[in-house]
Amino acid sequence: MSDVTNMAAPRVDVREVGLSYAGRRLLNGIDLSVWPGELVSVLGPSGSGKSTLLRIVAGLQKPTSGHVIVDDAPLEGPRPDVALAFQDPCLLPWLSVEKNVAFGLGFARQPHLSRGERRARVTAALDEVGLAHARHHAPRQLSGGMAQRAALARCLARQPRTLLLDEPFGALDEVTRGDMQRLLLNVVRDTNAATVLVTHDIDEALLVSDRIVLLGNRGTLILQLAVDIPTPRDAHVEALGALRIQILQALRDAMSRAPLPAHT
Fold first, then answer.
1. What is the mean pLDDT of residues 165-185?
2. What is the architecture, at CATH level 2, of domain 1-78+195-264?
């Protein structure tokens, strides 16, 4: 993991973003910048606005205050170079893995691609996630980890400059989750995408992140931590443990100051 923040400008720049709904404040003045090739994890208790923040950065929801800049341009809605993946792989059961990965490449907001260009993108994405052998499989033939690989490949086929991930590994077993975390690090390295990972798992954030952002009650940013630990990080148990304690204490302090909102 390199010192990407020395680059001239962030790829994603969230400026004083707030969101209120029906009198309830869901996000409160969030500032967050993400540079090319940087992986930032967003942690926080349920109801802290993590997924809401991700939807705003994806252009799927407009903030009630502040704004988002992507590649030096105000974000006005979904962009073809910003890809979003969820915990549910959301594969279409009537399409093969290959066709699921290609799904969306012909949408109106996407750049026009010839049939050969689409095929090349799909092949490259499947190769990146190790699913070339399963390109003709139906989704029902895939394990949970393979399904998440297919969902990630669908994002990669769009050649995103920004990659947004909403708890994509939360439903996987520990061994498969570890494999997916290593795959994610390879993807960020190979694509140089500015990447934001929403997770509930502190250990996952510590293992994969260049930086960790902690949201507290009512969507307030309460802590940012650079994770300056060499890889492989599981060899640095003491340093990881110290950061874990710091994060847990910040979460406890935030949760004790105010009741959690009912939902985000």
1. 93
2. 3-Layer(aba) Sandwich (3.40)
